[in-house]
Design a protein that fits this description.
Largest sheet of chain B: 2 strands, antiparallel
Number of strands of chain A: 11
Largest sheet of chain A: 8 strands, mixed
Number of helices of chain B: 12
Radius of gyration of chain B: 25 Å
CATH topology of the largest domain in chain A: D-Maltodextrin-Binding Protein, domain 2
CATH class of the largest domain in chain A: Alpha Beta
Number of strands of chain B: 2
Order of helices and strands of chain B: HEEHHHHHHHHHHH
CATH architecture of the largest domain in chain B: Orthogonal Bundle
Oligomer: heterodimer
CATH architecture of the largest domain in chain A: 3-Layer(aba) Sandwich
Radius of gyration of chain A: 20 Å
Helix content of chain B: over 70%
CATH superfamily of the largest domain in chain B: MetI-like
Distance between the termini of chain A: 31 Å
Strand order of the largest sheet of chain B: 1-2
Strand content of chain A: 15-25%
Number of helices of chain A: 16
Order of helices and strands of chain A: HHEHEHEHEEHEHHEHEHEEHHHHHEH
Structural class of chain A: alpha/beta
Number of domains of chain B: 2
Shape of chain A: globular
Number of domains of chain A: 2
CATH superfamily of the largest domain in chain A: Periplasmic binding protein-like II
Largest interface: A-B, 38 and 32 residues
Shape of chain B: flat
């Protein structure tokens, strides 16, 4: 949902199901939250977030609990977030970059180290999100917000069995003209590399050339390289097979029984959005308080129910219903998860090489 | 104020705010970008201005030249169709009764009151496989098919076994349709302005002296409206060349235009020097177009005086 710029997406933001969750969430009040003793900072927080990526009442609840009012701005993708902060922080306190972007921004000195002692709710997070985190060792700069996968969304009635291989997207004319791939280069090229048996994060020129050739060969069968509206194409019946974020498809599945989501057998992309504090944040203490608040189990449960992405907060998951915890689009089977990879920051030269490859794909 | 020499203070006061505005928000940022285009990326956020021409050399590689050519082609086709569609519209408006004209002009400008993104999404809903155009065509097909069955020809499947929707969306043609839709007013308005200024007595004289309507059109109206045509061509072509949203949303797998490449350089690829070089090449192309128009109108004016 969050990566949705489309109008239909915005309208879907108010689906019945979410409305229900929202009204339930409104009844939650947070007790026992310690009032923050920072007198020096104005009771203000500037939050830079993805669209429809927060609970319906989270910000109001935070204000009620702490007296800090939150001003939320929205960005459409990591590129936009990075470009906005590149020349200096325009005044944001908390941002929501994805895994590989945390590494890139940390390396560029764009992030403030977190003070874990100000965020006691870290204890609610599942250990695997805290230990051995490749993109942010020791979680020095970021804490997990939501996580998910990029896999295959499909229209069930057009398939006798789930299209659980990248072959159907990249190397087959069976669904010619009924396929949409993501235009975001990391995914377009990364999944092609994955199909060929290489790492999503390959920087090997030969492997990238092979993946590029594979996509160019498949191009006549591809309807569109979707910007971030693949789920709209699937919903409208323009395509039957899309590469998409799991949450976007989960949203669709809530309204259309004919839609399914599968993580390909070769593995997909595993991603994690994080909460981080950009360098030069005007209200760092409020920012810590806000991050801590988000990982309060009740607050987190309300957010997860609204955004329909997987939360790393196991205390929240323990309280949630089966419709969420057993949704295969939110929590895919472990077997495919193990083969999935996280996109990592590969350095400026590799980024540039892969981008050039995508320019050639689009121009071919 | 008939001459700025007579009241230099008033002139300076009037000119200062826009000049300052231009310097601060146009010349300064653009100069920075221009400097970037001669720089080398040295880190994630650092650029070293070392007067290299490498970015321009890279922009002139066949890959990017090809994308430039494709953009020129799409913008050219768009402009041409805009002229063909826009000219009769402008002509009709300029010859319509005076009290109707403002309303007709309003109809031309009306789409501008809606955001481009929303208009583009409306086009998606119109052009898509099960969109409005195709459901209309499907309805016509079914009526025609029903008629054939009635007349006893139904068994021959003259119209095919079933209706096949037109695949318009996600092709280059969808991009051209979208661009025409967006840029048509840019063509109609200058054309109308030129035709409106035209001295009607000349047409009357031409008709009185025995020239037919067709000949009067080509020997009187066209030459006199030529400056308007050129203005229309230029101000349609330049924004169409740099369009970014339309190919992004309506285009197919290979509808990438140069602005999409520039966008990726500034965002995903994080290569501002190269993106700046591509931008300036695009801008030079626009300047070239404007200069050509200037030359043509000067030539036309000189020719007219002889």
């Amino acid at each position: 949902m969050r990566r949705n710029r489309g109008i239909s997406g915005l309208l879907r933001g108010l689906s019945r199901r979410q409305f229900l969750h929202g009204s339930m969430a409104a009844g939650i009040s947070v007790t026992g939250f310690p009032r923050f003793a920072a007198a020096a900072e104005a009771r203000q927080l500037n939050f830079y977030n993805w669209d429809t990526y927060i609970g319906e009442t989270t910000l109001a609840d935070f204000k009620a609990a702490t007296g800090i009012s939150v001003k939320m701005d929205l960005f459409a993708d990591n590129d936009e977030l990075f470009a906005k902060l590149r020349a200096g922080n325009p005044g944001y306190d908390v941002i929501v970059p994805s895994n590989n972007w945390v590494a890139r921004m940390a390396l560029a000195g764009m992030l403030e180290p977190l003070n874990h002692s100000l965020i006691p709710n870290i204890k609610n997070l599942a250990p695997r999100f805290l230990n051995n985190v490749s993109f942010d060792p020791g979680r020095k700069f970021s804490l997990p917000y939501m996580w998910g996968t990029v896999g295959i969304g499909y229209r069930k009635s057009k398939f006798s069995s789930p299209p659980n291989s990248l072959k159907w997207l990249y190397d087959s004319n069976t669904y010619s003209g009924r396929i949409a791939l993501m235009s975001e280069c990391d995914f377009l090229l990364g999944m092609a590399l994955k199909y060929l048996g290489y790492s999503i994060n390959s920087t090997d020129a030969v492997q990238i050339a092979q993946a590029e050739a594979l996509v160019i060969k498949q191009k006549p069968h591809i309807k569109s390289f979707a910007e971030d509206n693949g789920q709209d194409l699937l919903a409208s019946g323009d395509v039957d097979l899309v590469m998409e974020w799991n949450g976007d498809i989960a949203q669709l599945m809530a309204e259309d029984d004919d839609i399914g989501y599968v993580l390909p057998g070769e593995g997909g992309v595993l991603w994690e959005d994080t909460l981080a504090i950009p360098r030069g944040a005007p209200h760092p203490e409020n920012a810590h308080a806000f991050i801590n608040f988000i990982h309060d189990p009740m607050v987190n449960m309300a957010i997860a129910n609204t955004v329909q992405y997987a939360t790393p907060n196991q205390a929240a998951i323990a309280m949630m219903d089966k419709a969420y915890t057993q949704n295969p689009a939110i929590f895919p089977p472990e077997a495919a998860l193990i083969k999935s990879e996280t996109i990592i920051y590969l350095g400026e030269e590799a980024v540039s090489m892969r981008q050039d490859s995508c320019t050639r794909i689009f121009a071919a | 104020m008939d001459n700025w020499r007579k009241s230099p203070i008033a002139f300076t006061l009037a000119l200062a705010p826009p000049a300052l505005w231009l310097a601060l928000f146009f010349v300064l940022p653009l100069s920075l970008l221009w400097l970037f285009s001669f720089g080398t990326k040295t880190g994630i956020t650092s650029i070293d201005i070392n007067w290299t021409l490498a970015n321009y050399a890279r922009a002139l590689e066949p890959l990017y030249l090809g994308i430039f050519l494709k953009s020129l082609w799409i913008a050219g086709v768009t402009t041409l169709i805009c002229l063909i569609v826009g000219a009769p519209v402008a002509l009709a408006i300029s010859f319509s009764p005076v009290q109707v004209r403002p309303w007709l002009l309003l109809l031309i400008i009306l789409p501008f009151w809606t955001n481009l993104l929303i208009r583009t999404y409306a086009l998606i809903a119109t052009l898509r496989g099960n969109g409005h155009i195709n459901s209309m065509l499907g309805w016509i097909w079914r009526q025609a098919d029903g008629l054939l069955t009635l007349t006893g020809l139904g068994g021959h499947q003259l119209l095919g076994a079933q209706f096949t929707p037109l695949e318009i969306l996600y092709t280059d043609w969808a991009v051209v349709i979208g661009l025409i839709y967006v840029h048509l007013p840019f063509m109609v308005l200058p054309l109308y302005a030129a035709l409106d200024r035209l001295d009607r007595n000349l047409i009357e004289a031409s008709l009185d002296l025995g020239a037919g309507h067709v000949r009067s059109f080509f020997t009187i109206i066209v030459p006199l409206a030529l400056p308007g045509v050129l203005s229309g061509l230029v101000i349609t072509f330049i924004p169409a060349l740099g369009s970014y949203l339309t190919p992004d949303l309506l285009g197919g797998p290979d509808s990438q235009m140069i602005a999409n490449v520039i966008d990726r350089q500034f965002k995903a690829a994080n290569d501002w020097p190269f993106g700046a070089a591509l931008s300036f090449l695009l801008m030079y192309a626009a300047f070239f177009g404007l200069a050509m128009r200037g030359l043509f109108t000067k030539h036309a004016a000189d020719g007219g005086m002889k």
